[in-house]
């Protein structure tokens, strides 16, 4: 097996903006993971499958989900794209 090193250029970690010439990551927010039964010692989620912003971009309502009312941070963040800047494979790794 060969050792592989990959360098990925990233934009700011909290950014949820689409891909542009300066950023190389885009995010999509999936299902809600807020545990509504945490105070009772249990586990129950509301079943919201995807984050939908309540308001326009740049407003505080844009951070709340229209479907479940939770903050965007409770939704699972998925990276859509990444630009590989440099890839290196060592020719001598693991060779016996």
TrEMBL record:
One Gene Ontology MF term:
zinc ion binding
**Subcellular locations according to the entry:** Cytoplasm
Q: What is this protein called?
A: ZF-HD dimerization-type domain-containing protein
Organism classification, top ranks?
A: Eukaryota, Viridiplantae, Streptophyta, Embryophyta, Tracheophyta
Keywords, A to Z, come to:
Cytoplasm, Metal-binding, Zinc, Zinc-finger
The record ties this protein, via Pfam families, to: ZF-HD_dimer
Q: Which NCBIfam families does UniProt cross-reference here?
A: ZF_HD_prot_N (TIGR01566)
The domain of life for this entry's organism is Eukaryota
Region spans: Disordered: 1-21
**InterPro entries (UniProt xref):** ZF_HD_homeobox_Cys/His_dimer
Q: Which organism is it from?
A: Trapa natans (Water chestnut)
Q: Which GO terms describe its cellular component?
A: cytoplasm; nucleus
Q: Does the keyword Signal apply?
A: no
The residues covered by the ZF-HD dimerization-type domain are: 29-78
GO BP of this protein: regulation of developmental process
Primary location group? cytoplasm
């Amino acid at each position: 097996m060969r050792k592989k090193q990959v360098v990925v250029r990233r934009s700011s970690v909290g950014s949820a903006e689409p891909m542009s010439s300066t950023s190389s990551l885009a995010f999509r927010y999936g299902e809600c993971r807020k545990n509504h039964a945490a105070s009772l010692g249990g586990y129950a989620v509301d079943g919201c499958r995807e984050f939908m912003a309540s308001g326009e971009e740049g407003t505080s309502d844009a951070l709340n989900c229209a479907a479940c009312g939770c903050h965007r941070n409770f939704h699972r963040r998925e990276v859509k794209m990444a630009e590989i800047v440099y890839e290196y494979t060592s020719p001598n790794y693991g060779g016996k």
